[in-house]
UniProtKB/TrEMBL annotation:
Coiled coil: none annotated. It holds the Pfam family p450. It comes from the Eukaryota. This is Cytochrome P450. Heme binds at C451. GO terms for molecular function: heme binding; iron ion binding; monooxygenase activity; oxidoreductase activity, acting on paired donors, with incorporation or reduction of molecular oxygen. Belongs to the cytochrome P450 family.
Length: 512
């Protein structure tokens, strides 16, 4: 300070830096920083509030995992390690009945429980459909890729063939096929592997009733091509020479050419009155006309839907019958009750007489055993749909374009719905009203897309079980555990069993 009392510390030529000036600049800088931080904090807060109001803030709990890949690898790893059911069980335990994940490179919501199943079956904002790779192999016009009026038209046409009044005509034909199958592949063998044999049986029944294609060279070629087509569904969809997918596409083209020849031949025969409209599904569909007298389904729709019916029916029914064999091996009391039911039916028939639709209606206990098997081992894991618009379930937001999957097993294993769910107990189905609430037992799905082949599958299963439990006893050669492939569970190693042929007529009081 000088003599006039002026502090000169901050004076000096302009631009000169003194400690005081430095202090002022620092102060100013701090204020600016504080202002920027405060404004940013307010902006972030406001933006996040806006996101909550307008954006997909309330997504279900879960994890989308690594970008793009998500949980795809862990799902496939679980499938290969026989633990698909455990994977979904653990996921639900961790994140609850509504959860998000990323499967097959798509953001996905898993829904479980009766209310969720109902939501999946009846919500119009969800659209079912097969992946593009499936369509390239099996065709684009199958019922699962149809919606609204087209879906109703195709479903109505399929139901004309699959309704009980029509199916009853085929009981005798199925009975003959089952007897021949058992004579050729079971009788005289001490060990067999059940799943491949059941697949052979259901393929024989289905291709006969759908296409009118009986055993022979053409059927063998078609069977080989069909197997290759199915392989492509689970392969990486790259169409390059020697890839599984490309082989599958080629097999699909061959199978389609064969079906085209079969269909035009059938059309000609129907036109000449040389074939019955009801002898198989193709004939039935060719014979149906609309109000203007035109064929109700186009030729392409007929081919794609007959092919889809084969896919939908073949593996599912063979898994059901194989899993029944597995459960019965571990449950002598249930097997004994079934034998009694079938012996009573056989007692009222002469030797070799075919089963009738009326006989099947008496097999109530056997169907309960089948239902309990379907509960514990649902052949279809679930189905997936795409959200057509932003939708909400149970307070959670499901964004437009996301995949939504329901799974039967998660509901079937819920102890609040099925007491001691792991226990095999067919008496749960003694009365249909005992299975509550609605949409708790869903092996065949539900709503407007509920499986139209349920009665067909029931008919095949009851006929096979009738002859099986009357003529054979078996022991499992492996633990019989089921494992989950991507969409179908399969018993371990195809379920090898040791087999004993018995003659019911040799036991007192039993019909031959
Ligand atoms: C045990 C045997 C079977 C099981 C467990 C089964 C299960 C299913 C399931 C879960 C669905 C999806 C339903 C939904 O989205 O709500 C379905 C659909 C379908 N099933 Fe089956 N199925 C079986 C046998 C059959 C048979 C024997 C046929 C034909 C002969 C068949 C034909 C179809 C068709 C055409 C659809 C599509 C229906 C539509 O989209 O409207 N299924 N099945």
């Amino acid at each position: 300070m000088d003599a006039q009392g002026i502090d000169k510390r901050g004076s000096g030529p302009p631009g000169a830096t003194t400690p005081f000036r430095k202090h002022l600049e620092m102060d100013y800088l701090l204020k600016v920083v504080a202002l920027v931080v405060t404004v940013s904090a307010i902006a972030i807060h406001l933006l996040s509030r806006a996101r909550k109001c307008w954006g997909p803030a309330n997504l279900p709990p879960g994890s989308l995992g690594l970008p793009v890949i998500g949980q795809t690898f862990s799902v496939f790893r679980a499938a290969r390690a026989n633990s698909g059911n455990e994977w979904i069980h653990d996921w639900i335990k961790r994140y609850g009945p509504v959860s998000k994940a990323s499967v097959l490179c798509r953001p996905t919501v898993f829904l479980t429980g009766p209310a969720a199943n109902k939501f999946m079956f009846f919500t119009s904002g969800l659209r079912m459909g097969t992946p593009r790779s499936f369509q390239r192999i099996f065709g684009e016009k199958s019922i699962v890729d149809m919606h609204g009026q087209d879906h109703r038209r195709i479903r109505g046409a399929l139901m004309e063939f699959l309704k009980p009044d029509m199916l009853r005509r085929y009981t005798g034909r199925i009975d003959a096929k089952v007897r021949r199958h058992l004579e050729e592949h079971w009788q005289g063998h001490t060990t067999i592997t059940v799943l491949p044999l059941m697949r052979g049986l259901t393929f024989d029944i289905t291709s006969s009733l759908l296409f009118g294609l009986e055993t022979g060279a053409t059927r063998d070629a078609f069977t080989r091509d069909f197997g290759r087509m199915v392989e492509g569904v689970f392969a990486i969809p790259i169409n390059l020479p020697f890839t599984t997918f490309s082989r599958s596409l080629q097999a699909g083209r061959r199978a389609r050419r064969l079906l085209e020849v079969i269909t035009s031949d059938k059309k000609a025969k129907l036109g000449q009155g040389k074939a019955s409209p009801n002898s198989d599904l193709i004939n039935r569909l060719l014979s149906m006309t609309d109000d203007h007298g035109e064929q109700l389904l186009t030729n392409e729709e007929i081919l794609d839907n007959v092919m889809f019916a084969l896919v939908a029916s073949h593996e599912t029914t063979s898994i059901l019958m194989t899993c029944m064999v597995s459960h019965l091996a571990n449950d002598p009391a249930t097997l004994a009750a079934m034998v009694q039911e079938h012996e009573e039916i056989a007692r009222n028939k002469v030797e070799g007489e075919a089963l009738t639709w009326e006989d099947l209606s008496k097999m109530k206990f056997t169907w309960q055993v089948a239902q309990e098997t379907l509960r514990i081992n649902p052949p279809v894991f679930g189905t997936s749909s795409t959200a057509l618009e932003d939708i909400e379930f149970d307070g959670y937001h499901i964004p437009k374009g996301w995949q939504v999957i329901w799974t039967a097993i998660a509901t079937h294993m819920d102890p609040s719905i099925f007491h001691e769910p792991a226990k095999f107990d067919p008496s749960r189905f003694q009365s249909q009203s005992s299975v509550t609430p609605p949409c708790s037992f869903v092996p065949f799905g539900g709503g407007p897309r509920i499986c139209p082949g349920m009665e067909f599958a029931k008919m095949e299963t009851l006929v096979m079980m009738h002859h099986l439990v009357r003529h054979f006893r078996w022991n499992l050669c492996c633990k019989g555990k089921t494992f989950m492939r991507v969409s179908f569970p399969s018993p371990l190693e195809g379920l090898p069993i040791e087999l004993e042929h018995i003659n019911p007529g040799d036991r007192p009081g039993f019909a031959k």
